[in-house]
UniProtKB/TrEMBL annotation:
Source species of the chain: Paenibacillus spongiae
Coiled-coil intervals: none
PROSITE patterns: GLUTATHIONE_PEROXID_1 (PS00460), GLUTATHIONE_PEROXID_2 (PS00763), GLUTATHIONE_PEROXID_3 (PS51355), THIOREDOXIN_2 (PS51352)
Name of the molecule in the record: Glutathione peroxidase
A Pfam family this chain is assigned to: GSHPx
Claim: Oxidoreductase is one of the keywords in the record: yes
Length: 182
């Protein structure tokens, strides 16, 4: 049976990094974008990282331009944007595809291990995303693929995917789930 440690990816600096380097860490893996309505989540993700990294949390961001062209810059531009605007110090990886047939193997694995369960339509943000995607990309709603930027996957210290949180879930709302694994 696979774990996240079976994969590797290119860092934002272009180096190949085995995810096995994160063994014994709790991981929050997500796809990101610099020009998205959810981009502001970088600030709270950085706060989570600062609060929990000494206890074993690693946050890993994968910029992607697959959702409305909201990550148009180069890897260097993405890294600079995240550092200058949000003080991001958690690891960023190279821009990559996270859905469809070109999805990076990491995201193929994550979406298989943690299927899409829908948006929380009891919340206004969940209602809006659900309605938007049903209208604009209805073909995306019937599978387990990433639906939009800032989809988050929580992975335990053994490399097993524990949970999936859609774009509309705020990073601060993950504290309880993170603390349970630390």
């Amino acid at each position: 049976m696979s774990t996240i440690y079976d994969f590797e990816a290119q860092t934002i600096k272009g180096e190949t990094k085995p995810l096995a380097d994160y063994k014994d860490k709790v991981l929050l893996i997500l796809n990101t974008a610099s020009k998205c309505g959810f981009t502001r989540q970088y600030a709270d993700l950085q706060k989570l990282y600062e609060q929990y990294r000494d206890q074993g949390l690693e946050i890993i961001g994968f910029p992607s331009n697959q959702f409305g062209g909201q990550e148009p810059g180069s890897n260097e531009e993405v890294e600079s944007f995240c550092q200058v605007n949000y003080g991001v110090t958690f690891p960023l990886f190279a821009k990559t595809d996270v859905r469809d047939e070109t999805a990076h193997p990491v995201f193929q694995y994550l979406t298989e291990a943690a299927p899409f369960k829908g948006f929380d339509t009891t919340q206004p943000g969940g209602q809006k995303m659900d309605a938007f995607l049903r209208e604009k990309m209805p073909q995306w709603m019937g599978d387990n693929s990433i639906k939009w930027n800032f989809t988050k996957f929580l992975v335990d210290r053994e490399g097993n995917v524990v949970n999936r949180f859609e774009s509309t879930v705020e990073p601060a709302d993950l504290k309880g789930d993170i603390e349970a694994l630390l």
